[in-house]
Amino acid sequence: MRILITGINGFAASHLARFLVKEGHEVHGTVRVRSDLSKLDDIFDKITMHLVEITDNVSVGNVIKLGFDEIYHLAAQSFVKSSWETPLETYRINIEGTINLLEECRKAENQPSILITSTSEIYGTKHGAMNEDTIADPNTHYGISKYAQDMIARLYHKAYGMKVIVSRSFNITGSGRADVFVDSSFAKQIVEIEKGKRDCIKHGNLESARDFTDVEDIVRGYVSIIRSEKWGEVFCLASEQSTKIRTILDILIGLTDVDVKTELDMDRMRPIDTPTMTGDATKANTVLGWVKTVSIEKSLENLLNYWRERIK
């Protein structure tokens, strides 16, 4: 198949590209002018890149006209903290970008299968295990923008019969995760301590809990969702366990031999923080046969080793 991944240089997108290349597909991806392509080093010669601003419908249209069997839409402003700092950019990229993609696909001669990747951030401060039927109540600009994206995707299926389907992933971790996220920030700081570049780990709220799933499991989930052909539906991908941020820190500290000190940094505290988030992946388990296979301990070990390779 000929497959397009928007934002192919990103964390989950680069793992997805590697997975699809191994399956033997012709893989294309969109990147921006200043994109860091280092996560694609090992497969750079096996994929085709296209310079695209997702908010520019002309450049999006030029790529869609090439014709694809599957499109995985992962291009996004995906950082909660950044969404507080640049809310308009967050809405433009996540909402306008999604509309541009779907509009250009709607006009395409051959209709591709499209996966829109949403997030558990749409649930906000809900309690208990959250699934596809849980009422959304986002409490960040990022969460609101992704819920809008989620609804827009389903609208295009209802209105035009397009082959669109939605994933809602809970926290994704593993090798390559950006250091703006708490687990990767901890791992990077530990490696900097190992290398003598810093004295302690700075952290924000350690009492909140999140549902972490390894990126390799999530990638398998993406592929299973789009190939299920359950158009217009939503599938949650989650480990079904919540882990305290303090526990994440303790696991990572347990994977190093250096003495690690910690320090509260008020700048790392969010204006609004969700205490606990746990996903219910029953639908993905039963309909797709998808299950989590990688433990949180292994994911964090992979993440720590990723930073050990990058920081010399």
Outline the fold blueprint.
Elements: E1 2-6, H1 11-22, E2 26-31, E3 47-51, H2 57-64, E4 70-73, H3 80-85, H4 87-106, E5 113-119, E6 129-130, H5 141-160, E7 164-169, E8 171-173, H6 182-194, E9 200-203, E10 209-210, E11 212-214, H7 215-228, E12 234-237, E13 243-244, H8 245-253, E14 261-264, E15 278-279, H9 282-288, H10 296-310
Parallel strand pairs: 1-2, 1-4, 2-3, 4-5, 5-7, 6-15, 7-12, 8-11, 9-14
Antiparallel strand pairs: 10-13
Helix pairs in contact: 1-7, 2-4, 4-5, 6-8, 6-10
Instruction: Please report the distance between the alpha carbons of the first and last residues.
Output: 39 Å
CATH superfamily of the largest domain: NAD(P)-binding Rossmann-like Domain
SS content category: alpha/beta
**What is the domain tally?**
2
Q: Uncertain regions: pLDDT < 50 for 5+ in a row?
A: none
Q: What value does the Rg take, in angstroms?
A: 19 Å
Helix-strand string: EHEEHEHHEEHEEHEEEHEEHEEHH
Could you say what the CATH architecture of the largest domain is? 3-Layer(aba) Sandwich
CATH class of the largest domain: Alpha Beta
Helix content: 25-40%
The name CATH uses for the topology of the largest domain is Rossmann fold
Q: What does this entry show, briefly?
A:
The chain is 40% helix and 19% strand.
What does this structure look like?
The protein is of the alpha/beta class and 312 residues long. It has two domains: 2-172 and 212-237, NAD(P)-binding Rossmann-like Domain (Rossmann fold, 3-Layer(aba) Sandwich), CATH 3.40.50; 178-210 and 242-277 and 294-310, UDP-galactose 4-epimerase, domain 1. It is built from ten helices and 15 strands. The protein has helices at residues 11-22, 57-64, 80-85, 87-106, 141-160, 182-194, 215-228, 245-253, 282-288, 296-310; strands spanning 2-6, 26-31, 47-51, 70-73, 113-119, 129-130, 164-169, 171-173, 200-203, 209-210, 212-214, 234-237, 243-244, 261-264, 278-279. Strands 3-2-1-4-5-7-12 form a seven-stranded parallel β-sheet, with helices on both faces. Strands 6-15 form a two-stranded parallel sheet. Strand 1, helix 1 and strand 2 form a beta-alpha-beta unit. Helix 1 (11-22) crosses helix 7 (215-228) and helix 6 (182-194) crosses helix 10 (296-310). The termini are far apart.
